[in-house]
Each structure stands twice: as C-alpha cells, then as structure tokens.
Design goal:
The protein is α/β, with parallel strands linked by helices and 254 residues long. The protein has one domain: 3-Layer(aba) Sandwich (Rossmann fold), CATH 3.40.50. It is built from nine helices and seven strands, in the order E-H-E-E-H-H-E-H-E-H-E-H-H-E-H-H. Strand 1, helix 1 and strand 2 form a beta-alpha-beta unit.
Length: 254
C-alpha cells in the first residue's frame, strides 16, 4: 500500500508504540486519526494528525465512538489495531474485571472496530488492516494465560479474515510484536519479575518497530515477525511442546 494521501486510524495512540505508529504514518504523508479515549487531552504532533475518540472497553463505548465520527470510520484506508490491555499474573490472582477487560479490548473490541471499517474498504476494493497480535499470540508462557489467549485469538482472527477478504483487494497483516520499550513492557516486567528473571529479555525501540511495520505495510505483507531470541522462541513454539516446557521450567518459579 502506498501511504501518501491515505487515511489511517491508529488505536491506542496516546503513547508508546501507538504514538510511534502515528508519527511514522504522518511522515509518510498519510492523514492519521489518532485513536484515544480522551481527545481533549491529546496533543497532535503535526497537522497531519487529528485525535479521534475510541474507547474499546465495551460494545456500547465502541458504538458511541462510531456514531460520533461515522465518516472517519467509513473512509479509512488503513486501520492499525494497536490498543491493548494488560492481564499478566498467576491466574488465581487475577480479578475477573482484569480478565474480561483484556478479552474485550484485545480481541472483541478489535474485531468490532475492524467490522466497522471493512465495508468501506470492500466497496473501494482496497485497504489494509493491521492487528497487533504480539509475541504472546505464539509463545504461551506462565503468567500470560489470559493475555496469550486474547492475542492467540487475534492471530486466528487475522489469518481467517485475511483469506476471507484477499479476493476483494483488502489485505490483513498481523504483527508478532516483540518486547517494545514502553510503559506497558515496564509494567509487564514488574509483574513477571516476581516469578521470572527478565534481565535477558530482548527489547526494541518503538520507532524501530514502527519503521519495520510501515515497510511491511508498503509490501502488503501478511505477517511481521521479530528477530533475535524472540524469533527463536516463536520457532520453538511451533515444534514439540516439550521445548517450551523446558524453557518455562528453567525461567519460571511459583
């Protein structure tokens, strides 16, 4: 996809990786709707970017966002589903509100928003949907049972939808995002640190991963994989389960 002059929506744009996506797209000449919960508190980086109220926390809040800005959603050429909710910890210690919120924001809300922008793309015979599926969508480790379940669902949704809409000229790509140096990763490390040694985790800067994503969008790729130890872990996850069982037993302690 050529990005100059295109209209994009990026969810979770208030900071971290979402902010990096917004800036990268604007540099490419795209008109960017920065999806945030509180547009009044958002400071756009330049004139190519405008805030857009998007709250994925419930079906009702998503419908309200769409009703308030119908043209923004119907005219979208590129949707980057980046917003996410963290749910990390021993399952017996997670409260139900955290569990339901993660499944709503990471999976149900993502599907709902995608369904809204898709008709316009199908009518025009072009468009790209990018879903942030995460490393956890492939590698299922202790303390990530709920988060991994939501992200594995994103992988399945992305692949099934990609095959569904490809004949109509629409591309779907999912990101196997590694550890990106953001506030969310810091929060993850804090939670994991109680049971894992996180000192050896691979990290990438938000701008670097955003640049890789933009390059993959331009190539109409179907998946963007990380490199390094993260890539090796993903390859191990595709093999016998004993490989990850062994890794988990060495790193994890209850």
């Amino acid at each position: 996809m050529e990005l100059t002059g295109k209209t994009a929506i990026v969810t979770g744009a208030n900071g971290g990786l979402g902010e990096a996506f917004v800036k990268a797209l604007a540099r490419e000449g795209a008109r960017v709707h920065a999806g945030v919960r509180s547009p009044a508190n958002y400071k756009a980086p330049n004139e190519m970017v405008t805030p857009l109220a998007i709250d994925l926390s419930s079906q009702q809040s998503i419908n309200a966002s769409i009703a308030a800005n119908p043209e923004a959603f119907s005219n979208t050429d590129l949707l980057i589903n980046n917003a996410g909710a963290l749910a990390v910890g021993l399952l017996e210690e997670l409260d139900e509100a955290t569990i339901y919120n993660a499944l709503q924001v990471n999976l149900a809300g993502l599907i709902h928003l995608t369904k809204q922008v898709l008709p316009g793309m199908l009518e025009r015979g072009s468009g790209t949907i990018v879903n942030n599926a995460s490393f956890s969508g492939y590698v299922y480790m202790p303390m990530a049972s709920v988060y991994a379940a939501s992200k594995a669902g994103v992988v399945a949704f992305s692949e099934a939808l990609r095959r569904e809409v490809k004949p109509a000229g629409v591309n779907v790509m999912h990101l196997v995002t590694p550890g990106v140096d953001t506030g969310m990763l810091n929060a993850t490390e804090d939670r994991y640190g109680e049971h894992f040694d996180t000192s050896g985790w691979d990290k990438i800067e938000p701008d670097a991963w955003a640049a890789k994503t933009i390059a993959a969008i331009k190539k109409d790729a179907s998946v963007l994989q990380p490199g390094g130890k993260t890539r090796l872990a993903i390859l191990a996850s595709r093999g016998p389960g004993g490989l990850l069982d062994g890794a988990a037993s060495r790193m994890f302690r209850r």
